[in-house]
Write the structure tokens for this entry.
Amino acid sequence: MDAHVADLRLAELRERLRGLGSVAVAFSGGADSAFLLAAAVRTLGPANVLALTTDSASLPAAERDAARAFAADLMVRHELVPSDEMAREGYRANNGDRCRFCKTELMAVLAPVARAAGLAYLATGTNADDARAGFRPGIAAAAEAGAVTPLLDAGLTKAQVRAISRTWGLRTWDKPAAACLSSRVAFGIAITPTRLARVERAETALRAALLRDGIPVRNLRVRDLGRYARIEVDAALTTAVAAHDPALAAVREAGFERAEVDPLGYREGAMNELLPDPEPYR
């Protein structure tokens, strides 16, 4: 039954893509936008599809390289488009609505590129689960700016995206979630290039230290809480990581005074838990 539902939703996705005719995909390199890009290429042909990746301080270098390689595998046009969300005061302030300013910037820089390429629509990889996830000001901002959401409209969930991606042989089928670097910074602490670079250094060093000593972490975040860092890893590994002195030292050496492991483990939207009331930011 689950496979049948997924097949029906995939057919709906293809029908919606055919209705668009041509599309530019806001391509972060994550599982959802990668799947949407692959589906668009399969449905419309590479000549009618363009992958657009914003290039800024909030995008880890590894994600940029992975996005480029994935688009090359599909033989679809791919452009890195400079973006400057840091120029937006609301983004730098890093209150609960930061993602709204980010998506507004994304649409502002990508939409003209899509139009110049002669493509009718700009699509994001928002899926059906995202729409039920509660506080997501960025999704609202993209919708207000005219982005289309084929995965959401077809009812495709994250699990279905991953399952079909696996069937298609996409390298992103089991890729862990990889939100922008700014999502690691506690609300109320100003976003700066220096702070984002520190987070990226810490995560890279932490992952390397764990891999070196055989701790098979999948999901990993270093949350910037100001002078100290909070490490999130898969829940089953929190005790092992907390007792792993080289891992904690790697995070401190990246520029934090101290590091601690969150006993609850990794979870999406952990920073939203620190908001007293997200309602004013919707």
